[in-house]
Amino acid sequence: MNRRQWISFAGIxxxxxxAGVTTSQWIYKTSLASDPAIQAFFANSWQTPDGKPVNSDxxxxxxxxxxxxxxxxxxxxxxxxxxxxxxxxxxxxxxxIVGIGIDSPSNIREFLEKTPISYPIVVGGLEGSNLSKxxxxxxxxxxxxxxxKANGQASxxxxxxxxxxxxxNQIKSAx
Length: 175
Description:
The chain is of the alpha/beta class. The protein has helices at residues 3-27, 35-43, 74-90, 105-114, 125-134, 164-174, and strands at 63-69, 95-101, 121-123, 144-148, 154-159.
């Protein structure tokens, strides 16, 4: 390979690298949930995995950590113990973690029998996946977490597994 070919290949490689980095930043970009999306979250007819209705009006006025997850999603399952610890840590501070299972009710029930947690889990299904997208998750990937302040405004969102410390800091800033 002569020098000119080598420079051409290096130039093409550099352009490909720049395009990849730019595209990946665009792909993983999330936006904060809009007011209509948050209102849709509260207006949804949520149900427990056992089919019991959930009154989401009881969630208003609290700092909410809304976590979209599925039992078949390893990062979702990995972050659940941290979510459970934070729910217990912030319970007295008007903070509520709500898990929205993007899964079938039977899969969610089976998962929760093996992995009990202290925060409410509701069935999202396809409607929950659509709501996740409305709340800023353009890719529809999981896990996806949204922090909603007590005044009903979104303050943070995270696509992918969230660390306990990162979530703790986001909750504190939302209080």
